[in-house]
Amino acid sequence: MSARGQRSGGRTIRRVLRYIGDYRASLILSLVLSVVTVGCALYIPKQSGEVVDFMLGPGKVNFSAVFATCVRIGIAAVILAVSQWLVSVLNNRMTWGVVERLRKDAFERIEKLPLSYIDAHPAGDIISRVVADVDTFADGLLMGFTQFFTGVCTILGTFLFMLSVNGWITLIVVGLTPLSFVAAFVISRATARMFAEQAQVRGEQTGFIDEKINAQRVVTAFGRQRAEEETFAEMNERLRRCSLKATFYSSLTNPTTRFINALIYMGIGVGGAFFALRGVITVGKLAAFLSYASQYTKPFNEISGVVTELQNAIACAGRIFELIDEEPETPDAESAAASAAFRGDILLDDVAFSYNKERRLIEHLNLHVEPGQRIAIVGPTGSGKTTLVNLLMRFYDTDAGEIRIDGIPIRDMRRRVLRDGFGMVLQETWLKTGTIRDNIAMGILSEEIDARVRAAAETCHVDDFVRRLPEGYDTMVSDESDGLSQGQRQLLCIARVMASDPAMLILDEATSSIDTRTELKIQDAFEKLMSGRTSFIVAHRLSTIRNADRILVMKDGRVIEQGTHDELIAAGGFYKTLYHSQFAGEAI
Fold first, then answer.
1. DSSP single-letter state for residue 264
2. Cβ within 8 Å of residue 519, ≥6 positions away
3. Under 8 Å CB-to-CB from 320, ≥6 apart: which residues?
4. Class of the CATH domain delimited by 3-324
5. What would the 3-class secondary structure string for 366-385 be?
6. What is the spatial distance between Cα 502 and Cα 529, in angstroms, rounded to a whole number?
7. Which of 268, 335, 322 is nearest to 295 (CA)?
8. What is the pLDDT of residues 515-560, one digit of tens each?
């Protein structure tokens, strides 16, 4: 592993320890109970060895001593079982408490991330970090809690017990023990990088699967199944290779340490036999020593396995912390307005913006919209129409210049206040998992929910088809397949905005998925909704914006023409060309 990777791993471990620090009392109690567990586990072999020594031969059995010793062994076994159970409960509680907080922190950060991060990262990779990586981290952490502490205590405890029985045989054990550490250390260094690569490729694969499932209709329509299968096969092959390497190298740990442990056990058996023949050690003590040797070497196998799992867990934790450490969107200023009653006077003053800093998209954009005006925005794809909407909603901040509403720069408003002032209907529909009533009522802040939901539904012609559903307004819907057509889903989104009664409107191709007959009804509803409200209408179908107070024609991030429909047609510029491209042969 590189020095940079080691430093990164060290920082990750320190952060994990800070999360565990919230459960300090449980951790201390778990450690104490681990010591009790190990103490009882080591006490039993010692007593078993004494039982052997109490049986000197036929007719030479000290039954009273054997019985008393067996009682002590039974008590120790009960204490051992109870303490192991309590350790398991505490470790599970700590692990899932840490996991809960990790997921909570990750989700809170996702809620605060700027839209630029969401746009630049596949949703599947983000999901993989929050779900799969956290689960892998939990498995490694739980194994660490359960086996690492107990293993260390067992090694120390057995060493002391063996030393109390015979120091010379203990030296044989101690002399061969470092071989296990060396083997585990060498193998763990090789596997850390491989597990990190495995986590990265797994996240990439999750993102690919999520994307293709959501786009299955498009993939099928274009006959891309075979091509996508080949892409997935290539990705799966990369995951197979890196997973196989990580698994292979990590699997070397157990047999290697087992081989070393067998050497240790053999050394104890041979050396102990010579000492027993010379009368230095009794047969019972040798039996106890062999039992201790077995217990002494077993934790090395477990700890080596734990080290491998912890490396995988640390690699996954690093990906989680990368997400948590992402820069959130610029926080609202302390002096930002906490409330506003918008009139809808909007000014864009010399605004500049670009997604890629090397290539400007919008430059020197100046625009003044008076309260109640209907502003239509048209232009070819990539001209900046939707970008202008993103800037108005402050999904992105301007690179230069500023946007003011009612004379107040939007940077001086709380984002929630700004966005509460806008109602927004996008071309892409989104429904949350819940009832139809819940979806329409998302933006309603007052207590008159049912009345406003029903009024908005009737105005948007939603009430007609909702009443025909088995559960009516209590019908469950989601953003996945739910039996609603795309047009019906868009009608629900429009009703949601109508119910929220915003001061300003943004309609970004809001009727693109609705048939012509329904569109006429929606246009009538929009006429009522836009009355007295400042409205921005992004449209490709120019027939929907002929009655706008002003039409902005955008090209290459600039407003190249503006005026009413008749004025722009008479000017004979770019707008007229666009219009003729849609209505060639029709009378103007």
1. H
2. 511, 544
3. 102, 106, 129, 130, 133, 134, 137
4. mainly alpha
5. EEEECCCCEEEEECCCCCCH
6. 9
7. 268
8. 667 667 667 767 777 777 888 888 776 666 777 888 888 887 778 8
348 sits in which H/E element: strand 346-353
326/112 Cα distance (integer angstroms)? 10
Backbone phi, then psi, for 462, in 5-degree steps?
-85, -35
- The secondary structure element, H or E, covering residue 535 is strand 534-538
Do the beta carbons of residue 99 and residue 296 sit within 8 Å?
Answer: no
Handedness of CA 163, 167, 171, 173 (dihedral sign): negative
Domains of the chain, residue spans: 3-324, 372-398+409-582
Among candidates 211, 241, 244, 240, which has minimal Cα distance to 228? 211
Q: What is the pTM of this model?
A: 0.65
Q: How far apart are CA 61 and CA 52, in angstroms?
A: 9
The Cα angle at residue 396 between residues 541 and 403, in degrees rounded to 5: 85
Of 316-325, 476-485, 543-552, where does mean pLDDT reach its minimum?
A: 476-485
For residue 282, how many other CB atoms are within 10 A of its CB?
Answer: 16
User: What residue type is 266 in one-letter code?
Assistant: M
Q: Please, are residues 326 and 338 in contact by the beta-carbon 8 Å criterion?
A: no
Distances in whole angstroms, Cα of residue 79 to Cα of each of 49, 83, 90, 303 = 20, 6, 16, 24
Q: May I ask the CATH architecture of the domain 372-398+409-582?
A: 3-Layer(aba) Sandwich (3.40)
Whole-angstrom Cα distance, residue 175 to residue 573?
91
Task: Give the chain's mean pLDDT.
Answer: 80
What percent of the chain is helix, strand and coil (3-state, nearest 5)? 65, 10, 25
CA 48 to CA 66: how far, in whole Å? Answer: 9
Q: Are 499 and 453 in contact (CB under 8 A)?
A: yes
Tell me the two tokens of residue 325: 């450490």
